[in-house]
Amino acid sequence: MKTYLVTGGAGFIGSNYIHYMFRKYGDSIRILNVDALTYAGNLENLKGVEERENYTFIRADICDKEAITKIFAENDIDRVVHFAAESHVDRSIRNPEVFVQTNVMGTAVMLNCAKAAWELPDGSFKEDKKFLHVSTDEVYGSLEEDGGYFYETTPYAPRSPYSASKASSDMLVKAYMDTYHFPANITNCSNNYGPYQFPEKLIPLIINNALQGKKLPVYGDGKNVRDWLYVEDHAKAIDMVQEKGRLFETYNVGGHNEKQNIEIVKMIIETLREMLPENDERRAHITEDLITYVEDRKGHDRRYAIAPDKIRQEIGWEPETMFKEGIRRTIEWYFDHEDWMKNVTSGDYQKYYEEMYS
Ligand code: NAD
Ligand code: DAU
After folding, report:
1. Model pLDDT for residues 132-143, shown as the tens digit of each residue
2. Ligand 1 center to residue 303 CA distance, Å?
3. Cα-flanking dihedrals φ and ψ of residue 221, to 5°?
4. How far apart, in whole angstroms, are the C-alpha atoms of residue 32 and residue 55?
């Protein structure tokens, strides 16, 4: 039975990954979820897995070397899947230090502890141990509107404190692979959407605001482009890279699904109107009149677009969820989880929202 150490498993992608892995492997794997439970970590995301005997939650900070060393000492870890990070670009612009701390220093601790646990006296590594570092397409910088795609060979050019911290963490993983032959992979993925996404990010924020009849804030001219991927397709890609990918390689993961932000906002309005029952009074206020253009994000990257050729050709992964279907499934999930939304938007998030959009 393989033992997985998943960091950041109480966040958006990490929790979707854990659900995906238990659906796929059932009782034949064991997962340890290590998460500090920051504002973005929520154990409600793991309802339904908590009672499994092959799942354990450990509250720990990835920067805490002692705690991470102890986890490796007490468990024979076969796979590390490293999601834990500060993930929101706007927050990184307001407060960069915590991004450097968690994303860079935390990744250094994870690498160091995995290396110490897996290294043999001759400097080689125990058999079949693998570390997967989950990263982002933002490390490649910003593309022009008609200016090509991000390939694995595209030079790094991060432009926000968030992407700079992720690029630094990628470089550390590359350094461990080059220097020690440390058994790792890196995945660089485009924008994810789907269930359990914290409503500071565009898609859940727009769904939540529209349902409440609140303004829909669109940064700048609304024409920045992102390449959207349904989160379950990302979870599948991570598993396939770890099991079928060539060690030491980077794989780009993307949906070939570029959309301007304003298109996304209009599509959410249209889909909400289609999905709400005729007699639901919220339908009346969900119109394009809610769209409000607000001050642009500082240094706002214009366009991201992944070329997922390598992962398709080498591993056979392709996105499976069409955007229209993915958005419907996402909205359906938020309809069914009103309490989840209420719980995460109370307290600290409410304070953040007021400061950010005041
Ligand atoms: P998220 O913000 O939803 O979740 C992050 C999780 O990490 C939370 O559970 C949080 O509690 C935990 N965490 C934060 N700091 C920690 C620390 N010091 N120690 C332990 N746990 C800590 O993030 P997400 O959107 O799920 O992203 C997960 C990973 O995927 C990140 O590394 C991110 O850079 C990467 N990524 C995200 C996207 C996206 O569209 N969301 C796309 C590509 C890559
Ligand atoms: O590309 C992958 C990255 O995608 C991940 O690495 C990050 O962790 C993830 O947060 C995401 O970053 P973005 O900055 O692209 O996502 P966000 O949802 O914050 O914004 C998407 C686009 O929508 C971006 O162009 C900014 C814009 N936007 C966002 C918000 C929150 C708005 O116009 N209004 C908003 O209120």
Report:
1. 999 999 999 999
2. 22
3. -90, 0
4. 6
Cα 191 to chain centroid, rounded:
8
For helices 231-244 and 12-25, angle between their N-to-C axes, nearest 10 degrees: 60
Q: Global pTM? A: 0.98
**Residue 358 predicted with pLDDT over 80:** no
Residues 236, 309, 299, 87, Cα dihedral to 10°: 10
CB 9 within 8 A of CB 33: yes
Catalytic residue flag (residue 137): yes
pLDDT in tens, 205-215: 999 999 999 99
Q: E strands of the chain, at which residues?
A: 2-7, 29-35, 55-59, 79-82, 130-136, 184-189, 191-193, 216-219, 225-230, 250-253, 258-260, 291-294
How far is the centre of ligand 1, averaged over its atoms, from the C-alpha of 86 (Å)? 6
Q: Which residues line ligand 1 (CB under 6 A)?
A: 7-8, 10-14, 35-38, 40-41, 61-63, 83-87, 102, 106, 134, 136, 166, 189, 191-192, 198
Is the Cβ atom of 261 under 6 angstroms away from ligand 2?
yes
Widest CA span in the chain: 71
What is the rounded CA–CA span in Å between residue 11 and residue 13? 6
Beta-bridge partners for 189: 136, 253
